[in-house]
Amino acid sequence: MTEGVNQPDQPETVSGHTPDLFAKFDPLIAMREGLLASGVEDPFDLVMEKVLSPTRAVCNGRETILLGTYNYMGMTFDPEVIEAGKQALADFGAGTTGSRVLNGTYQGHKEVEKALCEFYAMDHAMVFSTGYQANLGIISTIAGKGDYIVLDIDSHASIWDGCKLGDAEIVPFKHNDIEAMEKRLRRIPDGAGKLVILEGVYSMLGDIAPLKEMVAVAKKHGAMVLVDEAHSMGFIGHHGRGVAEDQDCLADVDFVIGTFSKSVGTVGGFCVSNHPKFEILRLVCRPYVFTASLPPSVVATAATSIRKLMHGSNKRAHLWENSKTLHAGLKALGFQLGTEEPQSAIVAVIMPDLERGAAMWEALIEGGLYVNLARPPATPANMTLLRCSLCAEHTGEEVQTILGIFEAAGKAVGII
Amino acid sequence: MDRAEVNEKIRSLIEPFNKKGVAIADGTTFAGDLEFDSLTVMDFVAAIEDEFDIIISMNQQAEIETFGQLVDAVTKMVS
């Protein structure tokens, strides 16, 4: 009889060298500790104790102007949107507790998909629980083994994760480089399926893509085209349909991906398309099938907001004004910006390094201004950025206040 | 094109990316020895793709860790 049988309940002691699975995070842990040891407020642990409006909140005990929320059209506190949410909460309950393909499709889910079809003037719309899942689901499902995905190297994490989840061959090209994209499309073997993935607005630097040229090249090579318009919906283009509409090439885009967590002002993601077989995706797209659907209140607020965005041209004009004023003002103060001219509602301020970026972020928050601190690896070329996203509800006066806070902080930290 | 020719071409293509002047052998690793980050990898792969008129997808790149493996993979694609 072995000793093991005599002592069955004794915990096994690990022998030999077994690495801690968390060892891979040590460099990040060290970097974070180093940053916090220098005394700065943790930029990734901000708490909003009270939200006063789309542009104001109480953060870490201070009243703060919000300049990093992607709440471009300020719909989060729209009275009609809130009312629709309250009504749905009362009528349909707090949640669906089910998948869209089982018990999780309520009237409200159908209505928000109808609103999207009307907003984009397209035949089909499929709503996901988040924008991340929309990219994850659509990309991994439509591009399969033997197909090729050709995508911009600066694509959002959700696009990369969609590529990783699927079985297609992944071929990236240099950011916004039409020639590099065409070369790769040309080299794909005959007979292989091709999907080109682009974004309307790239969220790190706030620059837009030359979609008209890129979509034309993709079509010339027989590729289907997916464009993520997360940061342009409701704001760019005559109807607010995004950069593809603005550049007059939306008709050649096969799939538009979008989100409810920016201009729409709630949470959720979607894909709209005119593909005649689109509806089959509801049965084969795993991130759509194997997750609970959005709560009734969320789809009700989204549908109401989307319908209001169809008539938001005055707000759009004011948002452009804000973006132009902030961009010109920061440039005049001597800050280095992500784009020469304002191209979207995102203005990225390039920091010399992470230390000074964090110091600048802290000086801004102490001055009563919240912006996003973006750092490698999420950023292109390992840049540290202070990313500002404007809202149509920021008043002209508020933009001037923002510039004043930037000036004081930039001088205190020694960046300008 | 034979392996020796491919080897020679890639050696010349790698030069501008080999900032520390590491001696290149078949066992030289891109991530470890040459310290290539993801952007360097993209530019270096693009240079090879353009030179040989081929595609090296990220799926294929994942299998290539050393200079020798790269030469083997490209040789296979162009022969």
- Tell me the CATH superfamily of chain B: ACP-like
Q: Would you identify the CATH architecture of chain B?
A: Orthogonal Bundle
Q: In which range does the helix fraction of chain B lie?
A: 40-55%
**Under the CATH scheme, which class of chain B?**
Mainly Alpha
Question: Largest beta sheet of chain A, briefly?
Answer: 7 strands, mixed
H/I helix tally of chain A: 15
Radius of gyration of chain B (Å): 11 Å
The separation of the N and C termini of chain A measures 78 Å
Strand numbers in spatial order across the main sheet of chain A: 4-12-11-10-7-5-6
Strand percentage of chain B: under 5%
Low-confidence segments of chain B, ≥5 residues, pLDDT <50? none
Number of domains of chain B: 1
Distance between the termini of chain B: 6 Å
Largest sheet of chain B, described in full?
Answer: none
Radius of gyration of chain A: 23 Å
Overall description:
The complex is a heterodimer of chains A (416) and B (79). In chain A, 39% of the residues lie in helices and 17% in strands. Chain A has 15 helices and 16 strands. In chain A, helix 3 (79-92) runs antiparallel to helix 12 and helix 5 (131-142) packs parallel to helix 6 (157-165). By secondary structure, chain B is an all-alpha fold. Chain B has one domain (3-78): Orthogonal Bundle (Non-ribosomal Peptide Synthetase Peptidyl Carrier Protein, Chain A). Helix content of chain B is 54%, strand content 0%. Chain B contains four helices and no strands. Chain B has helices spanning 3-14, 38-52, 58-61, 67-78. The interface between A and B is medium-sized, with 17 and 15 residues.
